[in-house]
Amino acid sequence: MYLDVNAWVGRWPFRPVPITTVSGLLKQMDRHGIEKAVVSSLHAVFYRNSQAGNEELFEETKRHRDRLILHATINPTYEGWREDLKVCQEDFGMSGLRLIPQYHNYRLSGGEAREVVNVAAGLGMPVALPMRLEDRRQRHWLDLAPDLSAGEIEGLVRACPEATFFILEGIGLENSALVRDPKLRERVYIEISRFTSVLQENIPHMIETMGPDRLVFGTGMVLKTPTPAILKVEVLKASKKVKEAISYRNAARALKVKM
């Protein structure tokens, strides 16, 4: 059983993706044994007003809320984002927030990021930060968004001590303060899809350093196929209890979701 903390729905403007609809996402989940997924709107990344993407997501997922956990995408440089976030939580039932500063033209070190994170924390909404959406080695020439760095994320986590964070598409974090500093890692969950179970053994290293309770499963659907992330759990040299914690228990506890 899996709870995927890193899924999307919608079209990507720079290349075709094989799945663009909620029904297609659910079929993919069924095919790979993914019981539930945290999903956000790809359209909200690129619309001038992200809220339009959140509204689409709400309408498209109404009949599938037993399996899909909605997280809002908010651009804190856009006028009216506070009201949009309130609507997303109170009217749409979105339980968390995703921030995409590399596409929305602000920095995690700036006041906009700290403000939106603190507002979300006050509402009890965890904040997800994808370090990237697309591999820069294969990006379209108009897609100039940089990857987020571990240092940027660490700075935001330190600046917002009341917030809980999910780091999606993480890489290069195994020796960072986000893993090694107990005061930071108790508020951070790290999604494993870009780490390795063998070769460099990033995942075993993080289990040893921080314990298994802060690692969560994610795939990056629909921009990526789920198979590599699933294989990383399957080949991981760890107990059944540890694998279950990473596969779904940690995220279910953090998101208050029944599995």
Would you give an account of this structure?
It is a single chain. By secondary structure, the protein is α/β, with parallel strands linked by helices. It contains 12 helices and 8 strands. It has one domain: Metal-dependent hydrolases (TIM Barrel, Alpha-Beta Barrel). Strands 1-2-3-4-5-6-7-8 form an 8-stranded parallel β-sheet. Helix 7 links the parallel strand 5 and strand 6. The model has no long low-confidence stretch (mean pLDDT 96).
State the CATH architecture: Alpha-Beta Barrel
Mean pLDDT: 96
Number of helices: 12
Q: Order of strands side by side in the largest beta sheet?
A: 1-2-3-4-5-6-7-8
N-to-C span:
9 Å
What is Rg?
17 Å
How many separate domains make up the residues?
1
How does the overall form come out from the CA principal axes? globular
> CATH superfamily name?
Metal-dependent hydrolases
Secondary-structure element pattern, one letter each? EHEHHEHEHHEHEHHEHEHH
Characterize the biggest β-sheet.
Answer: 8 strands, parallel
What is the C-level CATH assignment? Alpha Beta
Structural descriptors:
259 residues, alpha/beta, TIM Barrel, 8-stranded parallel sheet, 8 strands
Quick structural summary:
This protein has 259 residues and is of the alpha/beta class.
How does the SSE layout of this entry go?
Elements: E1 2-9, H1 22-32, E2 34-41, H2 43-46, H3 50-60, E3 68-73, H4 81-90, E4 96-98, H5 101-104, H6 111-122, E5 127-130, H7 150-159, E6 165-168, H8 177-180, H9 182-185, E7 188-191, H10 202-210, E8 215-216, H11 227-234, H12 240-255
Parallel strand pairs: 1-2, 2-3, 3-4, 4-5, 5-6, 6-7, 7-8
